[in-house]
Amino acid sequence: MIIEPQQIALWQPVVDKIYERFGVVCVLSRYCVFQSQATPLTELPAKYFEDPLQLTIHSNHIKSYCEAAIESQPNHDLAELDFQLLVMPSKQIFGGISWQPTLVLTEEQRVEFNHELTSFIEDIKGYICQQYNEFIADETSARVQLEDIDPISVQSFIDAHEEHVWVKDLNGVYLACNRSVEKAWNMSNSDIVGKTDEQLFDTRTAQMFHETDQKAILRGVRTSVSECESFDAFRNKVWLETYKAPLRDKQGQTIGVIGVSRNIAKHKEAEEQLLLAASVFRNAVEGVVITDHLGNITDTNESFTRITGYNKDEVLGQNPRILRSGRHDEQFYKKMWNTLIVQGKWHGEIWNRRKNGSIFPQAITISAVYGDNNEIRYFVAVFADISDQKQTEEKLKNLAYFDPLTQLPNRMQFLSSLEQELNHARRNQTKLAVIFIDVDFFKNINDSLGHIIGDEIIIELGRRFTYTLAQDDVLARLGGDEFVVMLPNVSGTDYVSSTINRLRSVFEKPFLVAQSEPVRLSASMGVSIYPNDADDHDSLLLNADSAMHRAKSDGRNNFAFYNESMTKASVEQLKLQNALHQALVEFQFELHYQPKICLKQTGSLGLEALIRWHHPQLGQVSPADFIPLAEEIGLIWDIGLWVLNEACTQGVRWLNSGFSFDRISVNVASLQLQRADFVDEVMKVLLNTGLPAKHLELEITESCMMNHPEEIINVLKTLGNMGIAISIDDFGTGYSSLNYLKKLPIDILKIDQSFMRDIPDDGNNAAIAKAIIAMGHAMNLKVIAEGVETKQQAEFLIANGCDYAQGYLYSKPKSADDITHDSSIGVRGC
Ligand SMILES: Nc1nc2c(ncn2[C@@H]2O[C@@H]3COP(=O)(O)O[C@H]4[C@@H](O)[C@H](n5cnc6c(=O)[nH]c(N)nc65)O[C@@H]4COP(=O)(O)O[C@H]3[C@H]2O)c(=O)[nH]1
């Protein structure tokens, strides 16, 4: 049975009845699928459009079934298939039982629907035939009855309708119209009836009306002729939809045309909403997937394709399960579905797999869409690809827990790992070691070679440490040149020592850096052990740090195991630090002076100013203890200035009192020299005190040259040009670069007192001292030896041509008063 388009209007009541009885939607598939999808669908009553999405989806299904059928059976009679395909049952008819139409290829190679549907269709077929017959019979009897109806009753019948209703004969003369028409056209019934459109309207309108009358008459069926926006009597905007149908006499001859216009504003509004929704769906940046209540995909948007890589056609009818990444277990999905069914909504993050196999995270909201009977009809999932967001989160996490330079764990991450391992150690009563590593003099690398090279070395160091450690050991960078290692589950100190040896061995090979000589480094390491030295992570780290400082003060390139006295030492250090700040304010410092003796003639060359600190409680504190601390805490600049000022003031005092001396030497710390205003400050002091520059000598240590040597050379040159003498203190103990030495405007080399020890018995020291004297002279410098305590040492120095000496043999450092009154100190230049 094939329904022709002309018969659609005729069939309308039949379709309606089928809908009422079976709750099915009859779609004239032959036309909607193979000819024009739109035409037959718009012919259906409005109720079929209540859920147009469903209708569309169904029509898609039909299309794919038909295509499948055609493909599998090219010679199959499509007309036969036609009917089967145009029946789309709604769920209710199966009492909510889920029903999935499937095509079955029978033994006779026929394409059929599954049994359930086939019998259902047979059922409908029978019913439709019966309805059709009844309809034809009803229609015939209705026509007969209509003839008997009083025309006045027909008028009141049409007047009862809000729609505009009018009737014209074949000549276009109005036979009747209802009140709505009168109102809308603002004319009375008598003005209209008996007139033609030409008499009532302008020519263009009349012509248009006439044309549409003809269209309906020619087609012989009810025909939609226009949809237009207009205004009602109250100037409200309305949408009018006009249908025209031929008017037939008893013999079935067309004798005129009936017109009906109705306000479809609501329908338009819905259509508008629908268009809007469709546009949102199409253009959403988020991927959208719609599934039926069974979870079969019925639609997707373009973003879905962009994000997942799947085209719509590839996924239609599939379950979204195809996107699963395997990252979530069944429990996860179970929970998700439970929430979805119970609450109607689920929101969360899911890792899914794209078509190309890559896995990506998505933030997704799935909502259930309910039908009139509160049953779930669809699921709509809206999701966004949050790969970028996840990456940023990961980066932030990385920044929070990992050192960006070496990619090693940072302090935070280390402490958390340490905490975990400590818990483990507590439970299992095992031991754990923390090794604190600090690279010796690393600041000098940064200062002299720059931070980029410094960073390269740190990265390389991290790499080297990593290679030496076992898999379970944890290496972290705490910052700067500080690293820390945790050794979980250590059996004893032997294991720790062997690890330390391995860690130290990484320094055996020099670090090769661009555009510079290979750099040799060493490190100081400190160890603390759980449970012996501390039982919480902070204390373990602190104690390993204290041990490292001990290793450092023991001469660097060393390691030390923590002991309790170290904690005491750090406490002392802290006390000292606080006291040092007070010392300057409370004038607790004093200068002592030690004469420098001329070995070639009798007399003194000058005096070295040495700071003394007498603290009211701590007593006398050695400069060897507090000067390095002052350097560390940044007080050295203020202290240094105080010393310079004091020494120059005393020098002027002596000169004014007739106490002559060649030069007063003042120790200058490396950090002082690095200050840009150092030269200015020295000039200021000389100006303020009035000491002639030729009476001042500045003692700098070799290590000063390690940082920015070129700049230091310039500073020293300026000072030298002012007439100030420069001497190199502790010569031979540090960074001896002859290359720089020869460029320096220095006057004197000072042999470090460590080389004076046991001279002349100590062959090595004697050889070094001799070499320094010879080298100094070769460079046209004077040489002074410090720490001379014995006559033998003095004789050795004289025998080897040393110029000056300083030491207890001649005089201990003394107060200015004592120096002034010590007649043994015959001060004169030599
Ligand atoms: N065993 C022995 N020692 C001798 C002998 N002759 C002198 N000394 C000591 O050796 C140190 C020489 O000073 P330094 O090498 O510049 O070493 C100095 C210097 O580096 C630093 N220092 C002292 N005063 C100042 C200062 O005003 N500024 C700066 N920046 N550093 C200072 O503190 C260090 C220690 O100073 P002091 O304790 O005064 O120690 C002085 C001095 O008292 C001797 O025959 N035998």
Automatic annotation (TrEMBL):
GO molecular function: cyclic-guanylate-specific phosphodiesterase activity
EC number from the UniProt entry: 3.1.4.52
Keyword hit for Transmembrane: no
Enzyme class: hydrolase
PAS domain segment(s): 150-228, 280-319
Residue ranges constituting the GGDEF domain according to the UniProt record: 430-564
Domain PAC: 224-276, 346-398
Protein name from the UniProt record: cyclic-guanylate-specific phosphodiesterase
Source species of the chain: Shewanella maritima
